[in-house]
Amino acid sequence: MSNADDVAGSIGQILGNAAAAKIDTLLAANFDNFSNVVDTSSNAMTVDDLFSALAFLNVYAFDGAISGVFDRRMIWGTYGVFNDLVTSQTFGGSPDLQQEGLRAGWVSKIAGIDMYNSNQLAASISSAQKAGIFTKEAIGWGVVGPELNVEIMRESDFIRDRYNVSFFAGTTELKDSAGVEMWARIS
Q1: Minimal CA–CA distance to 120: which of 48, 79, 171?
Q2: Every domain of the chain and the residues it spans
Q3: Cβ neighbours of residue 61 closer than 8 Å, sequence gap 6 or more
Q4: CB within 8 A of 171, min separation 6: which ones?
Q5: What is the pLDDT of residues 82-128, one digit of tens each?
Q6: What is the pLDDT of residue 126?
Q7: For residue 71, what pLDDT is reported?
Q8: Of 17, 29, 96, 143, which sees the most CB atoms within 10 A?
């Protein structure tokens, strides 16, 4: 940032985005712990793959919302699920979803899965990406103290303020059968 920026006006968004990125990273690290895996790392993600993940969860009859956190390349682009949703001749059973995807560039729910994207998912294979589909019973999130603590430290020698955001939190897998790790090709 330069001195022309409105630091006080921008700092909340900057620190909030940094904290959210860290929280996404902590939560997504639990995807590796799920023993149920849908591995299509040599193929693009399709709607059928989402139903395969649901099949694992339906065996245990979980109630409530099912969430999926995906890398953006698993949703959009040549290997994204939108390619299957919008262009597939075999999937033409949902013109409403196709129109929503074409009009808004986003479909909030596919196959009963609330769709989310995050740039904080770590990949260990260069052409494939990991994601997670899970219910609220799958992952625990605990916070001690205030959720976010913002501190301003004055460094008068350098004529600047240093802004820090911190939190004391952790995540863990609570119920293995409530989550599915998914791999799909991205390039």
Answers
A1: 171
A2: 7-185
A3: none
A4: 26, 27, 29, 30, 139, 140, 141, 142
A5: 888 776 555 555 667 677 777 777 888 888 899 999 988 876 677 88
A6: 77
A7: 92
A8: 29
